[in-house]
From TrEMBL:
<feature type="domain" description="PucR C-terminal helix-turn-helix">
    <location>
        <begin position="230"/>
        <end position="280"/>
    </location>
</feature>
<protein>
    <recommendedName>
        <fullName>PucR C-terminal helix-turn-helix domain-containing protein</fullName>
    </recommendedName>
</protein>
<dbReference type="Pfam" id="PF13556">
    <property type="entry name" value="HTH_30"/>
</dbReference>
<dbReference type="InterPro" id="IPR051448">
    <property type="entry name" value="CdaR-like_regulators"/>
</dbReference>
<dbReference type="InterPro" id="IPR042070">
    <property type="entry name" value="PucR_C-HTH_sf"/>
</dbReference>
<dbReference type="InterPro" id="IPR025736">
    <property type="entry name" value="PucR_C-HTH_dom"/>
</dbReference>
């Protein structure tokens, strides 16, 4: 529904550079959000939208000077905050609204590098910004922490290092990538993604479905598609960078069992996924 509304009300969508006070964020039942410019809507249009959508809970306001500057730059008409470092954005998405924003903020920031900026986009998503040279964060541990302490699911996508002048466009596109793969991420129960993985999902969604199905039908015999355990094994093997030992450990399989399945896939399809080009191709095709 959100996509149809964006098309029907394209003339009134809120755009960066519009007055921040005119921004009207609305949310569907599926918690997909869209922002309009109030000044570009008629009274009748505002009434119709208010019947179809609801206003999400307001996220907390930025707290530090740096967070206020980044928020104004990303979602308003603020100037780019001064920085000589490349910045990495970790995008996050909650599965439902929080009850205690302050405790959540404290728990998350305790696991991130010092001087991390917490920037909310809406009440359920946002970004954590920090210098890309900082130590890596164990995001799977953060996921477990949030699930345990707040009884709520959270997903992360790690963006690419970005220089200040390019940050606004880069992070907007990364948000688009994250939204694109959100459903697939939930289905596969993966809570941490790299931007490149999201880029692959984005690329697949841009491929005409008919062409994609023709490729699958040609290269993946039905007996492979129907063998769910085999498909799961091959997918994990590719996700673990074709490392049989790590894939077997993740799947709780004996390494010989995993190797048997990989050999079967190669024998039936004729695609040797132990080589990078073939592995990349199969990663695109797997259902």
């Amino acid at each position: 529904m959100i996509t149809e509304l964006k098309t029907q009300f394209a003339h009134a969508l809120w755009k960066p550079g519009d007055n921040l006070s005119d921004r009207w964020a609305l949310q569907s039942e599926n918690r997909d959000t869209v922002s309009f410019n109030r000044q570009k809507l008629t009274d009748r249009e505002r009434l119709l939208l208010s019947l179809l959508l609801s206003e999400p809970l307001l996220p907390p306001a930025p707290q530090t000077k740096e967070e206020k500057e980044w928020h104004a730059y990303l979602f308003g008409d603020g100037q780019q905050p001064p920085t000589e470092e490349t910045i990495c954005a970790v995008h996050f998405q909650l599965e439902k609204p929080l009850e205690d924003f302050a405790a959540f903020r404290e728990a998350v920031l305790n696991t991130f590098p010092p001087y991390t900026c917490f920037v909310w986009q809406n009440s359920m998503s946002g970004m954590l910004l920090f210098p890309s040279a900082a130590e890596d964060v164990d995001l799977n541990a953060v996921v477990e922490l949030i699930e345990t302490d707040f009884y709520i699911g959270i997903s992360f996508m790690v963006g690419t290092p970005v220089e200040g002048p390019k940050a606004k466009a880069a992070w907007r596109f990364e948000s688009e990538l994250f939204a694109c793969c959100k459903d697939d991420q939930t289905k596969k129960k993966r809570h941490v993604l790299q931007a490149a993985e999201a880029g692959l999902a984005y690329l697949l969604k841009q491929t005409p479905s008919l062409e994609l199905e023709k490729l699958r039908a040609h290269f993946l015999p039905q007996e492979i598609v129907d063998d769910k355990e085999l498909v799961r094994t091959v997918r994990m093997y590719l996700l673990e960078n074709m490392n049989s030992t790590k894939a077997a450990k993740t799947l709780h399989l004996h390494r010989n069992s995993l190797q048997y399945r990989i050999d079967k896939f190669v024998a039936v399809t004729g695609i040797d996924i132990r080589t990078f080009p073939n592995a990349a191709f199969v990663a695109l095709l797997l259902p």
